[in-house]
Amino acid sequence: MKQFVIIGNSAAGIAAVEAIRQKDKTSKVMVISDEDYSSYCRCLISYYLAGEVKEDKVLYKPETFYKENNIELLLNKKVLRVDPKKNRITFEDKNQLNYDCLLIATGASPKFPEIQGIKKRGVFGFRTIKDAKDIEGLLPVTKTASVLGGGLIGLKAAYALKKRNIEVKVIIKSKQALSQMLDYEAALLVQERLEENGIELVLGQDATEIIGNGDIKAVKLDSGKVLGSSIVIVGKGVSANMDIIKETDIKVNEGIIADDLLRTNISNIYTAGDVCESFDLTLGKYSVNALWPIAVEQGKIAGANMAGENIHYEGSVGINSIEFFGLAVISLGIYKVRDEEKNLFEELKYLDTKARLYKKLVLKDNILLGVILVGDIKNSGVFLRLIRERINVSTFKERLLQEDFGYPDIMDFVRDKESIYV
After folding, report:
1. What burial class does residue 224 get, using C-beta atoms within 10 Å of its C-beta: 0-12 exposed, 13-18 middle, 19+ buried?
2. What's the whole-model pTM score?
3. 158 close to 187: Cβ distance less than 8 angstroms
4. Cα–Cα distance between 348 and 357 in angstroms, integer?
5. How far apart (Å, rounded) are the C-alpha atoms in residues 351 and 11?
6. What superfamily does domain 123-234 belong to in CATH?
7. pLDDT digits (tens, 9 = 90+) for 244-287
8. Check whether domain 326-419 has CATH 3.90.190.20, yes or no
């Protein structure tokens, strides 16, 4: 009987637990989290802060899940280091735990800029339920807030604050919002919707100082402008949590490098989720895709393989989806082509600014590699299927942007026709 140890109690860790238990009902499974909270959906914390969902709806798995699956859950336990040579982990309190098979699903943490005042009370990341609760606790005495960064996390935080009647400004260093998932045309439609609903975007400027004695009073920008603010939320990307393996032989780059079994270069150590660097199907190289659906998929495969299966992971596709004030947005795979590579790719576009509709497809040699949809996202599943299965679209390319394009157009090309509508 093995002892499985999983470091991480979020999407990847929970998916791995379920996969292990499908094959192995008796081995010991231990899940470790440095948070004091049962597993929850990180992607819902903005809706919790906005007051749109209650705390119980943020829960991913109830506490009964662990007992029902015979899992030992260790909360509020921080792992200090992993020792692959001894098959052992050491906790911050110096206690140790042996394992036969280990999954590292430690996720990622917010990147904080190195600017004066960044450690003041009232500066938050926006990654955990604790972050959301701490921010919520200050809302009764808050009128103004600044968000540093115009990515998905930053804009979701801004949306939540606005829903709570806080005056919010989003400070974005680049010339557009969502520069890591949208091109300029799509970002413009989103920006207009945000501004119509009272969220001010400060483009092309960056924060240089957070001002205040004790409590925050303002944010100073590199333009010299000063914005009054009593809360600052940092949404400038994340970095993989890899400190626990920094003195080991486990290979890393931007994340922990995984093979097509989601295994590290150490045979009994696997990785999945936001800390995992795996093959990206559209980029054709290894990459970290810190996204909930990818974490779930990786966790399932890693857990199954830990329990003795031999399931190969084909690779990830970057998937981002969001809705702001009724405007739905999805991007898949390659969303923007660099100028020097324009001759290698083909771009198909449809734009209706009045209706706030935008479709963009990125192809290479008649293979779909990327999609942006704004306003009308109903074909996102069809496009994802085309990307994942690398289907040659040459015979129906002229239909891809048409209103009535859908699954019937690709029925003759997909691998498993029986499950296409599932």
Report:
1. exposed
2. 0.93
3. no
4. 14
5. 35
6. FAD/NAD(P)-binding domain (3.50.50.60)
7. 999 999 999 999 999 999 999 999 999 999 999 999 999 999 99
8. no
